């Protein structure tokens, strides 16, 4: 019998990337970012999305210890026992091993949805319907479900899932057996995947029983689970924190994609179409952002004078500052309290500037 009391959400809010520098920093990574036009941060939006699926007592967030205060600031209503703090970043397989152990201690019948904290979803109603169905599927079967997105371009920044049975159109409300699971191929392989019509993007959202993912982690990542095998008995005790610190010290970094999903025979894909966007950098923001002017510009500044500005991104954090721009095409102008970034809107140019931070005595701005 289906039971909502068994449903949980795990929000992955650990790690750090500087793909939105200078808006993001090591002290405040992307999951805590709130664009000037947004009402909520990425993390808070994800939390609100989960509230439509499960009770607030069943929403867990895993994050680095150094970001604990940011978690509490973004989600003041979350209980301390539902903030799982990692001493070091060890990627998704490790934090899922941690979280599944916690849930099995609390509820051996737990069914969990795992979600990144930095996704944009345009159709929230369809998202809720899809995830509810997925939780029900997972509760009834010992399978690992991932939500698949039909690709509209070859992109090496995403994982790709090949379905069993050959080329197939997007099918709603139907689980399909996974044939292969490939994390972040190079661009040429991504082109072949898209051309074949057999592949979906991996959304990064997974649904499974805590007991099933725990079994698969034991089977395919023994190097991790040998460290975590006794954690369950310490969950909720004063010894839990010390155990976690030792475990993370001894663990290697490994993603759930490489560790389990590429090897398991229990993987199924649920194709979805609820307006998913993984905004991983400035260029992907430009591709996904729907509010642009007639010249294809994204303008997130209160006071702006522009002329001959095309296909560019302008962000101004200071509401009292006027930004005046003329003659820029395919550029980024990002103005924060302590950094002004002006560079072409391409990853290569952006990366070249970021590399200078570490060698030019400007590390305080990282």
Helix and strand arrangement:
Blueprint: E1 7-12, H1 42-51, E2 59-64, H2 68-74, E3 83-86, H3 91-106, E4 111-116, E5 119-121, H4 124-140, E6 144-149, E7 160-163, E8 176-182, H5 187-196, E9 199-209, H6 210-220, H7 222-228, H8 240-250, H9 256-261, E10 267-272, E11 276-278, H10 282-288, E12 298-300, E13 304-307, E14 313-316, E15 323-326, E16 331-335, E17 340-344, H11 347-357
Parallel strand pairs: 1-2, 1-4, 2-3, 6-10, 12-14, 13-15, 14-16
Antiparallel strand pairs: 4-9, 5-11, 6-9, 7-8, 7-9, 8-10, 16-17
Helix pairs in contact: 3-6, 6-7
Q: What does this 3D model show about the protein?
A:
- Helices cover 31% and strands 24% of the residues.
- The chain has helices at 42-51, 68-74, 91-106, 124-140, 187-196, 210-220, 222-228, 240-250, 256-261, 282-288, 347-357, and strands at 7-12, 59-64, 83-86, 111-116, 119-121, 144-149, 160-163, 176-182, 199-209, 267-272, 276-278, 298-300, 304-307, 313-316, 323-326, 331-335, 340-344.
- The protein has a five-stranded mixed barrel. A four-stranded mixed beta sheet has the order 12-14-16-17, covered by helices on one side. A two-stranded antiparallel ribbon has the order 5-11.
- The longest helix is centred in the middle third of the chain and has 17 residues, at 124-140.
- It starts with 6 loop residues before the first strand and ends in a 9-residue tail after the last helix.
- The model has no long low-confidence stretch (mean pLDDT 90).
What's this, in brief?
The protein has 366 residues and is an alpha/beta fold. 31% of the residues lie in helices and 24% in strands. Helix 3 (91-106) crosses helix 6 and helix 6 crosses helix 7 (222-228).
């Amino acid at each position: 019998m289906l039971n909502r009391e068994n449903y949980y959400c795990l929000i992955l809010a650990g790690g750090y990337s500087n793909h939105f520098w200078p808006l993001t920093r090591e002290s405040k990574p992307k999951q805590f970012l709130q664009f000037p036009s947004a009402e909520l941060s990425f993390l808070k939006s994800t939390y609100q999305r989960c509230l439509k699926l499960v009770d607030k007592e069943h929403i867990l967030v895993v994050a680095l210890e150094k970001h604990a205060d940011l978690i509490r600031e973004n989600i003041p209503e979350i209980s301390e026992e539902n903030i799982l703090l990692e001493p070091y970043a060890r990627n998704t397989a490790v934090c899922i091993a941690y979280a599944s152990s916690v849930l099995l201690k609390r509820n051996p019948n737990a069914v969990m949805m795992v979600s990144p904290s930095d996704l944009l979803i345009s159709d929230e109603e369809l998202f809720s319907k899809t995830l509810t169905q997925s939780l029900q599927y997972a509760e009834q079967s010992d399978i690992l479900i991932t939500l698949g997105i039909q690709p509209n371009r070859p992109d090496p920044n995403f994982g790709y899932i090949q379905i069993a049975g050959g080329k197939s159109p997007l099918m709603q409300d139907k689980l399909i057996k996974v044939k292969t699971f490939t994390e972040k191929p190079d661009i040429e392989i991504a082109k072949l995947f898209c051309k074949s019509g057999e592949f979906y993007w991996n959304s990064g959202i997974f649904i499974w029983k805590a007991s099933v993912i725990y079994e698969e982690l034991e089977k395919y990542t023994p190097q991790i689970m040998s460290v975590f095998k006794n954690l369950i008995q310490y969950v909720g005790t004063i010894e839990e924190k010390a155990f976690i610190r030792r475990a993370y010290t001894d663990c290697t970094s490994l993603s759930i994609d490489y560790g389990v999903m590429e090897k398991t025979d229990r993987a199924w894909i649920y194709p979805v179409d609820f307006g998913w966007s993984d905004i991983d950098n400035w260029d992907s923001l430009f591709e996904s952002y729907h509010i642009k002017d007639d010249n294809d510009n994204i303008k997130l500044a209160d006071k702006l004078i522009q002329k001959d500005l095309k296909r560019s991104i302008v962000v101004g954090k200071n509401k009292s500052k006027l930004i005046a721009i003329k003659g820029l095409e395919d550029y980024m102008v990002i103005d924060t309290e302590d950094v002004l970034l002006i560079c072409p809107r391409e990853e290569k140019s952006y990366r070249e500037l970021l590399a200078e931070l570490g060698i030019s005595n400007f590390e305080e701005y990282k």
